[in-house]
């Protein structure tokens, strides 16, 4: 059963990468027509960043309560909120100030810092190995897309 669940999780993770790849591809291949694709990429990135943060609440709430893990649990719950806040700031930066490059930078930082914190959490026994492997795999794809679009914006390919 565990193998089947992990296989399904891999499939859904790959499906979740489609909007990143699609929007990023539109921006890079059709820069003149890409303002909506950039907005969609930023919005989807913020949503997914919130999702990966929420997973940590599931880790904490699925474990039996123990005074040995109280400090770690509080950090994990905090980590669960921070990615959503970073995603929200990225959305505000794009919607209010029309600064897509800055919004992409916030998202890049959010994804990178979250996966680094998860790696630390794995070392402390809080984050399962299978989850960490999946997260690093998809995070690399997501961060490469966000970075490529950011570089394109900064290089003047298009003016978001």
UniProtKB/TrEMBL annotation:
The keyword Membrane applies. InterPro entries: DUF3429. The keyword Transmembrane helix applies. The chain crosses the membrane at residues 6-29, 36-57, 77-95, 102-121, 133-155. Keywords: Membrane, Transmembrane, Transmembrane helix. This is DUF3429 domain-containing protein.
């Amino acid at each position: 059963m565990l193998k089947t669940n992990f296989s399904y999780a891999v499939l859904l993770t790959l499906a979740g990468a489609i909007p990143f790849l699609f929007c990023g591809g539109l921006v890079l291949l059709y820069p003149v027509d890409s303002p909506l694709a950039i907005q969609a990429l930023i919005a989807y990135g913020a949503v997914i960043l919130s999702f990966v943060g929420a997973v940590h609440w599931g880790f904490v709430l699925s474990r039996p309560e123990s005074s040995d893990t109280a400090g770690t649990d509080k950090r994990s719950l905090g980590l669960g909120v921070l990615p959503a806040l970073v995603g929200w700031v990225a959305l505000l930066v794009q919607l209010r100030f029309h600064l897509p490059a800055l919004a992409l930078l916030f998202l890049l930082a959010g994804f990178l810092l979250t996966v680094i914190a998860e790696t630390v959490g794995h070392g402390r026994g809080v984050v399962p190995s299978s989850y960490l492997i999946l997260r690093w795999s998809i995070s690399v794809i997501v961060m490469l897309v966000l970075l490529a679009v950011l570089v394109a914006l900064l290089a003047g390919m298009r003016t978001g």
